[in-house]
Specification:
Strand order of the largest sheet: 1-2-3-5-6-11
Shape: globular
Helix content: 10-25%
Structural class: alpha+beta
Number of helices: 3
CATH architecture: 3-Layer(aba) Sandwich
Largest sheet: 6 strands, mixed
Distance between the termini: 37 Å
Radius of gyration: 15 Å
CATH topology: Trna Endonuclease, Chain: A, domain 1
Number of strands: 11
Oligomer: single chain
Length: 157
Amino acid sequence: MMIKWADKFEEVAKSNSLHCYISHRERGWIESIVINGQRCFCRSKTYDNKKREYYIGVDPKKLKENGDLVLICGGNSDGKFRDIFLIPWEIFFGTLRFGDPKNTYKLPRKYLQYRAYLRDRNNRWVMSVQPFGRKETYISEWRYSVDEAIRYLKSPE
């Protein structure tokens, strides 16, 4: 079962008096959301315990957009939240630019995506893009619990 972590996070955010506006959904999943005036590119991901990572596919067209944060809402297969990442837009997409978009469909169909991985390396989180080794960005400082993320989003800039 695919869990819509971003939808769950939006419910929690609204219940904590944060103003949320979903500006775009893709195939039923939140892709863009404005939270307290901050435009966020959004992904819902279930943590892969075996690989100790989140895999994120991003359409190359997204690199032409602007925003404030990249919101990655993650949880465990048991239905409980695990991580919320609030990565500055420039850092996330700046790292993504080092990758090469790959076709994620079986030929003859074609759909290019950047492949990004958020990996837990003994509680030190790293974002890497394919091909591996080309670029890694440490992202531990932007990893939050749900409550911490809500406090961060409520705080004035």
